[in-house]
Structures are given as structure tokens and as C-alpha cells.
Amino acid sequence: MASDLNIFPIQALSDNYIWCINDGCYAVVVDPGDAAPVIESLNKHGLRLDAILITHHHADHTAGIQELTSVYKNIPVIGPKNSKTKGLTHLVAENETVSFANLDMPLRVLEVPGHTLDHVAYYSDTALFCGDTLFCAGCGRIFEGTPEQMWSSLQKICSLPDTMQVYCTHEYTLANLNFAQAVEPNNEDIQTAIESVKQLRSAGLPSLPSNLALERSINPFLRADIQENWPFLEKHTQQKVANSVSAFAAIRGWKDKF
Ligand SMILES: [Zn+2]
After folding, report:
1. How far is CA 107 from the centre of its chain?
2. What is the pLDDT of residue 4?
3. Shortest CA distance to 53 belongs to which of 14, 95, 21, 11?
4. Is 45 a catalytic residue?
5. Which residue among 31, 34, 50, 60 is the active-site one?
6. Residue 241: HSE in the Cβ half-sphere, 13 Å Cα cutoff
7. Sheet of 26-30, strand order
8. Could you say which of 170, 189, 225, 236 is catalytic?
9. What is the whole-number distance in angstroms between the Cα of residue 112 and the centre of ligand 1?
10. Active-site annotation holds for 57
11. Residue range 165-189: average pLDDT?
12. Is 31 a catalytic residue?
């Protein structure tokens, strides 16, 4: 990523972040679930919209496309192939590289089905835009895929470097950390993260981006393969845990009712 690039969140809907990648002149926005805050923010910062990136078809990630493309004409709307999203102009698949007309930040595509079947993530050397697949200390609900798919999508994300900054699309961190603490009551990294996120939130700041090193140490879904945690998990969920996927499914089921 060019060093003069900046990434900031545009708050939208109840708890969405629309990430705005920009060089001070041109901007690319990720998952605009609402057009109005994007237009307001681009105007405020004097930015021209270069492209829209979409990770998956849910309305809180796509509902702003129509209005944005009527205001900013002829910009590419890039999203996954086989998506229900209306208004996509460029379809992408695993391992493709996305480049923009003006903003110098080529991104690679990862297919990460599970939350939805069309879900993709985009990443540079330093930044990952993962939509609703990975959250800080959490992961998306499995609406369309299977636990096997979601686990393997998270494993794919985990193959990226520790230093990768993780730009998630919802401010769910504190609730996720409270759950993480229930799953791993003795994990001191989770306690430390709770304290630092509470400070950020009480100062009105986002808890994001996260990074993959932190996620590996606090995210119960990425830690589902730690066998020494399985007896505790079995006791709490009353589910048989025989491998990483069944551990992941048990943690996901527990979180859905938490
Ligand atoms: Zn979603």
C-alpha cells in the first residue's frame, strides 16, 4: 500500500463502518449500506469517489449503491460473482487483483463463504477488508454457509501476516469480548483488550481496525483449534467436540444464544 494512503471509517446505520480508503484526492468506499453519510463525508474531505467495493449482498452493505452511482456517475462497483447484489459492474473471484483508475492500492480477492455464500474479502500487504466474516473478537453469523465453510474461510484469513490490519464492518467489539471472556475466562489478553476497547469507546472512538496478531490471541472463533479448551467447551455447550470444526460450530452456537 502506498504510504500516503489513509483509511477512515464513515459511521452508518446503527453500528456499521463504511471504510473510506483515500489518497487525499480519490476515495474507494467499502460496503456502503447508506449513501448519505458517504456523500457527506466525501464532500467534507474534498474526495472524489473512484470505486465502490462490495463484500457480500446484505442490504446494510449495499443499499447505498444506487444513490452513490447516480451522484458519482460511471464509477465501477466491484463485488463477488454469483452475488444477489444489484448494480455490480465488475465481478471478482478468488485470487484476482482489483485495481482502481486513480487510487493506487491494488487489492487481492479471497472468497470467504459462510456468513453468505457470495462473501469475499479484499486485502493489500497491510489492510484486510473482511465485511461480516471476521469481527474483532468475533465472526459473522452463518446465514447461508456451513460451519465447515466458515471455519475454512477464517483459516484462509489466518494465513495472512500477523501485522495485517483488520477493517471489520460493525462495532461489535465489546459485546464480542464479553463473550470471548465467557469462552476463555483465564485468557489475560481478552481482559486487556476489554479495558482498552472500553477506553476507546468511552472517548467516542472506534475499536477498529484490529490486527491479525491480536485476533489470534483473543478471538474465540480463530482459537477453536486449541484442544485444551475443548473439555470446557463441551461442558458449557453440551456438544461433542471432536475436531476444530465441531469446536467452531459449538462456539458459534453458544454465541448465537449468548
Ligand atoms: Zn452481512
Report:
1. 15
2. 74
3. 21
4. no
5. 60
6. 23
7. 6-12, 16-22, 26-30, 48-53, 77-80, 90-92
8. 170
9. 12
10. no
11. 97
12. no
d(CA 215, CA 56): 22
60 is catalytic: yes
- Please give the distance, rounded to the nearest whole angstrom, from the Cα atom of residue 205 to the centre of ligand 1: 23
Distance 37 CA to ligand 1 centre (A): 19
Q: What percent of the chain has pLDDT over 70?
A: 99
In whole numbers, what is the pLDDT of the chain averaged over residues? Answer: 97
**Cα 21 from Cα 48, distance rounded (Å):** 11
* Cell digits of residue 216: 489470534
d(CA 80, CA 1): 22
Domains of the chain (ranges; CATH) run 6-167 (3.60.15.10), 177-207+220-257 (no CATH)
210-223 residue pLDDT tens: 999 999 999 999 99
Model confidence at 3, in pLDDT bands (50, 70, 90)? low
Q: Is 115 a catalytic residue?
A: yes
